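seq:
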Amino acid sequence: MGTTQLESVPEPKYWHLKTVLTEALDSEFSVGEILPNERDLAARFGVARATLRQALEQLELEGRLQRRRGVGTTVAPPRMGVSVGTEQHVWPGGPGDAWQSVDCTEAAPPAAVADILETGRDEPVHTVRRTRMSHGQPVAAELLYVPSSSVPDLSAIDAPAGAAHARALLRELHRLELEGQDSAVELGSARADDAKELDRLPGAPVLVVTTRYVAGARTAALSVATYRADTCRLTFGDSGGVEIHHPHRHAS
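struct:
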């Protein structure tokens, strides 16, 4: 295919280039395929590498591309639809929960979390770390903060540290009657620890879902879940499940 020149395009070059690249992704590449290097792409489309990078970053933000360490830029699979804000109120760790418990520690939470939990800023709380996988790839990481007052009998449980202790804590949490939950969603940037866990670069776009669980007329637990913005899209409904959406894409 010949070189595509963009000199006469009135809109920002990177934005028009994004459209051209999208058409190329649909017609010439398949999911998981590695794109040519930046030098070759820039030469093909007749643009500076800085313009190309802007277009690639926009496509990554929109979930069409993934940048992976040691691999390069690949065509992303369809985003996974994650249902949030449903009418089903359930504790974490219940039947059908797609999250995997990794660890459980006890330490003072971030100040903003302590304020929501209405605990002292130096008061330790249980912190359960969980991950969510899809097709063998990490798509989300969660920190679930639980005050000791929500699980007063946990200390009597003979459970080792790590994932087993996390599961024991969740079982104790289920003893409470869940009165309600609410969620908030915002766009953020991956911190170093999130990026490492999600196999992303620091600063990559992420979706942060904060969920407050209410029992006994107070916040009994707080979840802060970080989703890969290039992999997931949030859906709102009552199903409470995860749907895989497959838009039409051509194989190369």
